[in-house]
Amino acid sequence: MSPESKKLFNIIILGIAFMFMFTAFQTCGNVAQTVIRSLNSTDFHGSGYTSMAIIYGVFSASNLITPSVVAIVGPQLSMFASGLFYSMYIAVFIQPFPWSFYTASVFIGIAAAESDRRTVFIALTVISLVGTVLFFLIRKPDSENVLGEDESSDDQDLDINESAQNNVTKAVDAFKKSLRLCVTKEMLLLSVTTAYTGVEMTFFSGVYGTCIGAINKFGTEEKSLIGLSGIFIGIGEILGGSLFGLLSKNTRFGRNPVVLLGMLVHFLAFYLIFLNVPGDAPVAPAEGTDSIAYIEPSKEVAIFCSFLLGLGDSCFNTQLLSILGFLYSEDSAPAFAVFKFVQSICAAVAFFYSNYLLLHWQLLVMVMFGFFGAISFFTVEWEAAAVVARGSDYRSI
Prior knowledge:
The chain has about 400 residues and is mostly helical. Helices cover about 75% and strands about 0% of the residues. The protein is built from 13 helices and no strands. The protein has helices at about 5-40, 50-65, 65-75, 75-90, 100-110, 115-135, 155-180, 185-215, 225-245, 255-275, 300-325, 335-355, 360-390. Helix 8 (about 185-215) packs antiparallel against helix 9 (about 225-245). It is found in: Membrane. It is a multi-pass membrane protein. Pfam families: UNC-93. InterPro entries: Ion_channel_UNC-93 (IPR010291), MFS_trans_sf (IPR036259), UNC-93-like_regulator (IPR051617).
């Protein structure tokens, strides 16, 4: 197999593996609070919000050391180990206990009958494991330097020792770069935007589905609407990613219009959710809520808001990844590690306060972060445009 074919093969395997893993995990996260809330009437007592807060809290801390770990053990084993932890977390839902539920949450960094719940989560666990095993199909690139017949074993041992030392050096350097990037002007400004993506990701991936499932006015379809909501969030993400991730290369207006569109789309979604969803829906008991917001709860409006949440999220994320790749094109790994660190720690905080804050307060927090996050992004983008004016190729990003 040629090097180009091997690279294409690895990309396809990675895409399929991550598709399996995150289909299972995101589905699990979307229904976690609803499932756990339905179990709290039994001997089990826990919170899906708290579980996700633990996951993203540990995830945020581990992101700063991730480049170092990958430099030592390699990407293949790192991804395989991560896949096992994802699968373990999903498997806990088959027969959940509080200690195993929260412990599995650390390692990751269904209001239906119990047999149905077990069937669903057994299937999700198998799907995640399939994705994990696929990592073993990844093929290592051919070594550029092939050992000659005249090389001695001592020379080979020396090369191995030097390679191990280089890995340690790379690990330390990657960690130091991540720390230095945290205090740069550009990264501090982009951290406000990144913080918003963490907060709104918490809302659409865990809180909003729980709110829909708690509205008794939706009748017997309230729980099935959670899955439909997730589907339309995905449609919005795919549409936005296609339009703004691929077609944005041809725009001469830069990234700011896309971020502005994302902010306006999200603000429209927040306003409609404020009108349509009762304020106590995020913290409603297992029996749900009979409250009404400002209009009679509408299934169509609820699902439309799911689409808007996904579309707006894709606007922010595609442009954040684009500008990070532009500013730190020579060594992007530490920059993306800081990005995931800030995003994850804000997601953890948001999942934690979701246990206590009513819906309108959560929407207010997102509006404030969204506004200041957009302003911060505009500032960095204007500076990036100035760099382009001095000779860099902006539209190649």
